[in-house]
UniProtKB/TrEMBL annotation, chain A:
UniProt name for this protein: CHRD domain-containing protein
Organism of this sequence: Tessaracoccus antarcticus
Lineage: Bacteria, Bacillati, Actinomycetota, Actinomycetes, Propionibacteriales
Keyword field: Signal
Superkingdom of origin organism: Bacteria
Keyword Signal: yes
Signal peptide (residue range): 1-31
From TrEMBL, chain B:
Gene Ontology MF annotations: hydrolase activity
Official protein name in the record: Class F sortase
Annotated transmembrane regions: 12-32
Organism: Tessaracoccus antarcticus
Stored CDD domains: Sortase_F
Length: 268, 251
């Protein structure tokens, strides 16, 4: 068991080491002209039932139709890979982060099956490298690792081709979810904590700890800045991500808040 | 000791997941609720409005029960048979209520009533405008943010309405006068009514908007109502502040 997770961890660490600089360099190259920070949206990652993990995610559209995804989380299971996804869909269905009452079996944690009705299916798998489709949903060897203190940092630029249709237009219906909990407080995923992952088992793979797949954090989108609920009619109430109307009014404040937020997260 | 799993097996797992999760979602629906700017504004002085307009895609609710959703339906917040979310494989969410107040399932709001300040208005769904909260194109209806929870479900619901519009008072004109303890009722698509009590009303400069507090994570159903306030600039047609009311669910 231990060896398994070490090997998982090791391979994840390697892919991080390889992938992170690549992702960084890609992002850096586009940072000066490609990222539309005025349209960045933030998600506060709240603890799911049974965990203390928290964090922030920022999604920043790029000029070329892509999305820069940045995540910082803390109090995650240390030295362990954390599967993370953007959940929800673009059909207009209302999806949300699960309330504690989603824990139907009452074991104190929200399993994947318990979360699906609320947060919806996997829309994008936030891997460190390679495929980002739902197929990589549990690709823990390409998921980010928390460090020895339980801090997790992630940044990847998803190209326009990697974004399912309608992603940018439906950010309000999407959520960031991270998985991986430590029910028995021994600093690792093991069967003694919550038993076997019934989700993994349902996919035909036995012996995966439920701790590795249960939900750790979930974040719903937080619009930036104040709300323009006064004065004259907005000139462009429905013009999408690059809309000018609201940005002209409160764009400065939005950026300031967004920057302050990321500064705070960086400092934490 | 349980059997060990190699990365190879995880890959198998991923393959299995691919099979299970299946075909990608087609972004058929429109991204944003189609809120169109009114070409000509009526100018009644009344604050209330009879319209109930929940727009398109984002407003659709799962498995609707045949509901008696007349606007005048009496509040029945706790007695409820609530439909499940559409993708739920399980059944019956109504038992196991650990929260202090009875929480409802997610369901779109259809009407907002705040008797103490004369609000009785229809609703419209709000998405994002850029990265900001959209506002209702119709100044006489209350907007609800689809990215938050729905009123009455566990968690935060966010409603926004205009204070003024072209110089006349509109749906949330009297929100700044809302008193702590006032009752807010929200009729929902599933035929139930969520009832809230105002706990706090504050004014915040727009450049110090309390984002974390407004979009807070709450275990019990909670509600915020947002409108404009503070100083109005005639040249910029812009209020410098937001008035925000916070409310908690009642049984």
């Amino acid at each position: 068991m231990n060896r398994t997770w070490k090997s998982l961890a090791a391979s994840a660490a390697i892919s991080m080491a390889v992938a992170a600089p690549l992702a960084m360099s890609t992002t850096f190259a586009s940072a000066h002209n490609g990222e539309d920070h005025d349209s960045a949206v933030t998600f506060r990652l709240d603890s799911m039932k049974g965990t203390n993990a928290t964090g922030d995610a920022t999604l920043t559209p790029t000029d070329s139709g892509g999305l820069v995804v940045e995540i910082r989380a803390k109090d995650m299971v240390p030295n362990s890979p954390h599967a993370q996804h953007i959940h929800g869909d673009t059909s207009g269905a209302m999806k949300h982060c699960p309330a504690p009452s989603a824990d139907k079996d009452g074991n104190g944690f929200i399993s994947i099956e318990e979360g699906f009705p609320d947060y919806g299916d996997i829309h994008i798998s936030l891997t460190t490298t390679g495929d980002t489709t739902k197929a990589s949903g549990l690709a823990v060897d390409r998921m980010p690792m928390a460090d020895a203190q339980g801090n997790l940092s992630y940044k990847r630029t998803l190209t326009a081709a990697e974004l399912p249709k309608g992603t940018l237009e439906n950010l309000a219906n999407l959520h960031v979810v991270q998985h991986g909990v430590d029910a028995n407080d021994n600093g690792k995923y093991d069967m003694e904590g919550l038993g076997e992952s019934t989700f993994a088992k349902s996919l035909g793979v036995d012996g995966i700890p439920a701790e590795a797949t249960d939900s750790a954090t979930c974040g719903m989108i937080m619009p930036a800045g104040g709300v323009a609920t006064g004065g004259e009619a907005p000139t462009a109430p429905n013009s999408g991500l690059l809309a000018a109307g609201g940005v002209l009014l409160a764009g400065g404040a939005a950026v300031a808040i967004s920057r302050r937020r990321s500064a705070a997260v960086t400092g934490a | 000791m349980a059997s060990t799993k190699s990365p190879l097996q995880w890959r198998v797992l991923m393959g299995g997941a691919a099979g299970v999760v299946g075909v990608g979602v087609i972004g058929a629906a429109l991204a944003f609720p189609s809120v169109t700017a009114p070409a000509a504004l009526p100018a009644p002085s009344s604050v209330s409005t009879p319209t109930t307009s929940t727009s398109g895609a984002a407003a659709s609710t799962p498995a609707g029960t045949p509901s008696a959703s007349t606007p005048a339906a009496s509040p029945a917040p706790s007695a409820s048979v609530i439909p499940l979310n559409q993708t739920s494989p399980s059944t019956v969410p109504s038992s196991t209520p650990p929260p202090a107040v009875a929480a409802l399932a997610e369901s779109a709001p259809t009407r907002v009533k705040i008797p103490s300040i004369g609000v009785d208005a229809g609703t419209v769904s709000l998405g994002l405008d850029g990265n900001e909260l959209e506002t209702p194109a119709d100044p006489d209806v209350v907007g609800w943010f689809t990215g938050a929870h729905t009123p009455g479900a566990p968690g935060r619901a966010v409603l926004a309405g205009h204070l003024t519009w072209n110089g006349r008072h509109t749906v949330f004109a009297r929100l700044p006068q809302l008193a702590v303890g006032a009752i807010v009722e929200v009729d929902r698509e599933d035929g139930t009514t969520a009832k809230f009590e105002v706990t706090k009303v504050s004014t915040f400069p727009k450049d110090a908007f309390p984002t974390d507090e407004v979009y807070a994570s709450t275990d019990d159903p909670s509600l915020v109502l947002i409108t404009c306030g503070g100083e109005y600039s005639k040249t910029q047609h812009y209020y410098d502040s937001n008035v925000i009311a916070f409310a908690s669910a009642l049984d």
